[in-house]
From TrEMBL:
GO terms for molecular function: methyltransferase activity. The keyword Transferase applies. Keywords: Methyltransferase, Transferase. SUPFAM superfamilies: Monomethylamine methyltransferase MtmB. It comes from the Bacteria. GO terms for biological process: methylation. This is Monomethylamine:corrinoid methyltransferase. The keyword Transferase applies.
Length: 203
């Protein structure tokens, strides 16, 4: 009888981050990743058409999926904090994919949207995320920038930018100024959505 695959817990990931194979970050980034990608490209005979952004060939789609799974299993995920590689088995990866939700609700009330998988030939419109997406914004323009995105009807959700300064101070990572900046970003984006008449918009 086939064994039932077990889901990976946060505790499993934590333990593997402490006990996984030791490796230098530069070796994982510049040796393991490109070498594995090159080998998998050859193994699955992957050839991309530069004129086709989204592949539609069924065999190519399957090969890309299998190469992606192999890539994760072979390379794992690098943990910068411990200098180790978090490894997953193929069964664990496939179980996680199979167990993943087939949709989720993003946002609240009338601004809530359902996010669902879209195959390459889907006729359903994609979710449109708007915003400066992690780009630095000045304190003076932060609210206005985000309101300009929120008031566009085509935009479904906001991906916010980051404050260059907070009360004129540099929000240095790990400092109280960073905490204040992150809190201010969230509050200002919510206010920008309110001003645009888009209360409850996903963020």
């Amino acid at each position: 009888m086939e064994a039932i695959a077990k889901g990976v817990t946060v505790f499993d990931v934590y333990d593997r981050a402490k006990t996984g194979p030791k490796m230098e970050e530069k070796d994982w980034d510049f040796k393991l990743i490109p070498q594995t990608a090159k080998a998998l490209k050859k193994k699955y005979g992957i050839k991309m058409d530069k004129n086709t952004i989204i592949p539609e060939d069924k065999e190519l789609i399957d090969n890309l999926f299998n190469a992606g799974v192999d890539m994760l299993v072979d390379c794992g995920v690098y943990c910068i904090d411990t200098g180790r590689v978090i490894k997953y088995s193929r069964d664990e990866v496939l179980h996680a994919i199979k167990s993943a939700p087939d949709h989720f609700r993003y946002g609240e009330d009338k601004e809530a949207i359902n996010v669902v998988p879209r195959p390459f030939n889907s006729t359903k419109a994609p979710v449109i995320q708007g915003g400066p997406t992690g780009s630095p914004c000045s304190e003076e323009m932060f609210m206005t920038i985000h309101q300009s995105y929120a008031q566009e009807p085509i935009i479904d959700t906001i991906v916010d930018g980051v404050l260059q300064t907070i009360m004129g101070k540099d929000p240095v990572p790990g400092s109280p100024w960073e905490i204040m900046a992150v809190r201010s970003e969230a509050l200002q984006v919510r206010e920008a959505q309110m001003r645009a008449g888009r209360k409850g918009m996903g963020l």
